[in-house]
Design goal:
about 375 residues; alpha/beta; 9-stranded mixed β-sheet; 6-stranded parallel β-sheet; about 30% helix; about 30% strand
Length: about 375
């Protein structure tokens, strides 16, 4: 392998999408990696991305990227329905892979990819970036060190804006079968951050609801039926017997953002943010033996990236790329891998099943 890990990004649009918002600026600021290749479905956009971000190679066929000998690893940053096939092909090509969350449309797809990554002996990372957020890492460390003592209860809310009028390029998410919606993405990311900090669920009782059953498509001037959920309520119990309450929602106006509260016999920890914990800075507060919360600083040991890493969406992605690089170099296994993704897919399935059956479900 070269001095730097040679990365190719599949879905590297220079103007729209998650790669444009996070992966491309993050990888340019990551000294462990070289942006060797960018791939989109049209050569003109691939070449524009190449020009903007300094990539060595541009592709309009991801199979050509996977076959190129100068590519050590790839990032799959596309719409969820494309994750499975492209990730499978990357693994079969012997590449290390960073695939965004959700890993697949279904748990079965995720399980197959996790098995294949293990069989191929490559490093596979899923984009659960909240696990790399410095404040979330600090919160987890404090819980493990006994800051709150025995955990008694947890509460998590994420209420964010859900645009009811949107262009056709964004209305595809209305179809629940395509796997990208408030349950899988917003709930998946935020619940995963919670279980990373406080432990896994043992039981869930949930309501998965579609409160807004139509979206207005602005460029076609028509209303479209929506089957994807927009409000998820979960009550549950953790494996450590703590009780949990969760509300994740996409609402039309004035979302209140993210808040995770952990209450224990010895203290309290609270994390909050303007949006999902993987997307930007998270503030941390705590109290021990007192009813007065105080701001808690985040240790420098949880900041892996250099000062030049852009703030906002690229930051936690850059943190996760650092973990990915560690794993590829054989220097650690801290990254959320495809087995982590399978566990979260199964939890989402349990939440959905509980809602359908209208009863508690063991996880």
């Amino acid at each position: 392998m070269a001095d730097k890990i040679r990365l190719g990004i599949i879905g590297a649009s220079p103007t729209v999408g998650w790669a444009h918002r996070s992966h491309l600026p993050a990888i340019v600021a990551s000294p462990e990696f070289e942006l060797t290749g960018v791939c989109t479905t049209r050569m003109e956009t691939a070449e524009e991305s190449q020009r903007q971000y300094g990539a060595k190679l541009a592709f309009d066929d991801y199979q050509e990227m996977l076959a190129h000998p100068d590519i050590d690893a790839v990032a799959v940053v596309l719409r969820v329905p494309a994750h499975y096939e492209i990730t499978r092909d990357a693994l079969n090509a012997g590449k290390h892979v960073f695939t965004e969350w959700p890993l697949g449309r279904t748990t079965g797809e995720a399980e197959e990819l996790a098995d294949l990554a293990r069989a191929k002996g490559v490093k596979a990372v899923v984009g659960l970036q909240a696990r790399a957020a410095p404040a979330v890492l600090q919160m987890k460390q404090l819980v493990e060190q006994g800051y709150v003592g025995e955990i008694m209860s947890c509460s998590m809310t994420l209420v964010r804006g859900g645009v009811l009028a949107r262009p056709s390029g964004r209305t595809w998410q209305r179809d629940v079968e395509l796997g990208a919606n408030t349950l899988t993405i917003a709930t998946g990311h935020s619940v995963d951050a919670m279980r990373f900090v406080v432990g896994d669920f043992a039981e869930v009782s949930a309501i998965v609801s579609t409160q807004c059953d139509q979206w207005y498509e602005t460029d076609t001037a028509q209303y479209l039926d929506v089957t994807s959920p927009d409000n998820i309520l979960i009550n549950g119990r953790l494996t450590n017997d703590a009780v949990v309450s969760v509300h994740v929602a996409s609402i039309p106006w004035a979302g209140s953002g993210y808040r995770l509260e952990v209450y224990g016999r010895e203290g309290t920890l609270i994390a909050d943010s303007e949006d999902s914990p993987q997307l930007g800075p998270v503030r941390l507060q705590g109290a021990q033996g007192s009813d007065e919360l105080e701001e808690l600083s985040v240790s420098g040991q949880h900041h892996f990236v250099l000062e030049g890493m852009p703030q906002g969406a690229p930051y936690n992605v850059g943190q996760l790329y650092y973990m990915f690089g560690e794993a590829i170099r054989g220097q650690g296994e801290r990254q959320p891998d495809f087995d982590t993704a399978v566990d979260l897919h199964r939890l989402v399935d349990a939440i959905r099943l509980s809602s359908e059956r209208k009863q508690a479900v063991t996880v």
